[in-house]
Write a structure and sequence with these properties.
The chain has 122 residues and is mostly helical. The chain is built from 6 helices and no strands. It starts with 6 loop residues before the first helix and ends in an 8-residue tail after the last helix.
Amino acid sequence: MLQRASLMTEGPRLCGNDWVFQQDNAAVHNARLTKEFFQENNITLLDHPACSPDLNPIENIWGWMAREVYKNGHQFQTVDALREAMFNTWSNVPTSLLETLASSMLKRLFEVINKNGGATHY
């Protein structure tokens, strides 16, 4: 999945050459193969303590995707139909949404600092 995620092209394109990747500390994110992938591809990771506030913009993308997939009350008759809709939606995430979320990171971090680690509106 990481190889298909276009991290090596989209990270620098959206955030410049000194970009940093963020993920939470879910078990799959800390797996040996995941860590090796980031090391082999020289991808810098943001240190993300286990109990830190969830600032990962991917949560916003998941919400956007859910709204798109189920737009107008759409229901799916099969798992395959749902899977296809999810993959199509993932393939069509607007670049403008990604750019907006990437550019919001500084504000997100400052808000967490100002709230002493408490809940934010993100």
